[in-house]
């Protein structure tokens, strides 16, 4: 399978999957998408007896056609096993009641859904490097709103030939997320806090990736850049797998029948998770409606309601920090499909967004979009209330991102979401990553030290303190750099100069 840019109008300008995954972003600033999506219609019958790993093989093969079956199998078995995930189903489904289930995406090493892609991504990247006969050192630059950083660090730690630098907003991640990163082990990792927000970090990295001067500088030092952010196809496509397994699981559990449609509500930031679901639908998974759930940074919810995406607005630090994003990078890929793969139209709209901070689709386009997608938001108070309510009624503890999604589910009326159809809420993190909102919901003093809060939460709820967090708790801080957002590029140059 070949890949092209979302902005490319010349049909012959395509790249191999290995090239696309190795380089991350297209030269023209667009995002790689398959030249044509695989022409398959997955059915329950062919999936029902397959393990997570076997379904993974099926999906990855469709998108990375240059790898042998053996290479894919090895990568998958390294990525998804009992040391990398603490649940044998990898993604278990928790049925709340007849209307709602939770797809638990947080059983990996860093307790967030990013583990599902980032456990596999390093193996794919090494294969891509080999196939492209690339012997330069790879430098991964990643911007994180908390969870990508840690999951990427765990995925890449001590991998030969690869170094990784992660930038996170100093006051924009939870204390647990920050601890997890600052205590990261590995000899090829670097973690830097910036005075700025996630968008600042992501933009600075995008500039580096698309700058000729930077490329030349890296080249002179025998280094090439790659990205671990969800713009990379090696990050995006592994996320299709869990939509497929959740469907199979729902049917196996008798929650829905084979072929019966279900809805998904996805706590959304960079639009990677929900986009993977959309592609899963194109491969035959019967998903009826996609609900994009936002926190107070509701740029996407506004788009799905009004047809205008406007990033010129105040930025809020919320209690669901992994969604504190105003410039959602995978949204461009969604636009491409929503606008019938019209790259010219995509380029035009993205140009408006980049120059004026705003893009609008036509009323007709919006109507089409709303048939399949809708967006809504929940603020911090609503998030805490949802955690409290679901805990009190069901003894099920949601993390704040999941709670945003649940809150949005409750807010939507029948016009925008048919609630006779079963709905899966994508549960994107373990609640223990976000002590403060959980404390508020359970009536615990939230000014206490985070670990003390978690001990109390564990005692009250009976939720076991996750082993992976105990490991973090007992290790030393290794990284303390804080730099200004304007100095990110200088930092990267220096880092390259000192790479051995
Ligand atoms: C990254 C993240 C999200 C947002 O996912 P996108 O793919 O960026 O839309 C939501 N919740 C949590 C906990 C996350 O880590």
TrEMBL record:
GO CC list: cytoplasm
Cofactor(s) essential for the protein: pyridoxal 5'-phosphate
Residues in Threonine synthase N-terminal domain copies: 2-80
A single MF term (Gene Ontology): threonine synthase activity
Keywords: Lyase, Pyridoxal phosphate
Enzyme Commission code: 4.2.3.1
UniProt keyword Lyase, yes or no: yes
Pfam families on file: PALP (PF00291), Thr_synth_N (PF14821)
Statement: the UniProt record of this protein carries the keyword Lyase: yes
InterPro entries, alphabetized: Thr_synth_N, Thr_synth_N_sf, Thr_synthase-like, TrpB-like_PALP, TrpB-like_PALP_sf
All copies of domain Tryptophan synthase beta chain-like PALP, residue ranges: 106-424
Residues bearing PTM N6-(pyridoxal phosphate)lysine: 114
GO BP, one annotated term: threonine biosynthetic process
UniProt record similarity statement: Belongs to the threonine synthase family.
Family matches, as PANTHER family: THREONINE SYNTHASE-LIKE 1
Protein name: Threonine synthase
Organism: Leptotrichia rugosa
